[in-house]
Fold this protein.
Amino acid sequence: MRAASVDAFVYNRRMGSPLPNTRARERLAAVAIAVLSSAVIVGVALVMATRPAAGAALDVSWLPLLNALLNASSALLLLAGYVFIRRRRVTAHLRCMLGAFALSALFLVSYVVYHARAGSRPYGGHGATRAIYFVLLISHVILAGAILPLALTTLHRAWRGEFARHVRIARRTLPVWLYVSVTGVVIYVMLYHLSSR
């Protein structure tokens, strides 16, 4: 998106009136977000439940590191976006949040490809670190399932110019999204660098 078009988008949304808010459009958006989110969650669950393809020539051993980098970058963009909106730098906020969403989408694709090809890696740690790992993993997985509909709803409300409603849901979305992004990196470090196999 070019700077001029981003500025025009922000100006039109901020200065103009929000798009007509009909109940039918809101219901349609809510249904579309629910269907898309459910399809993604079911698709990821199916990939996780199936065995990896045998004899695949594709080397995916580098994808966990990429996934951690995507999560870390998404977290940094989320924090920057928060700082920008607190300083009323709307265009910079918009760019950061769209960037964070794009990186999270790339993460999801990379995650699915890795698990379809390599399966899951068992955690090799023991004692207290094992308990900490599974608490982080379980909370991460549950909240990762919740973040897609939250993020889509938050973006949809901003797109429609419904900023009061956008702010209300963004106050819930941001901490959850940050938690999922940061714990994704922590889980990677624990699984690939701190556990013995």
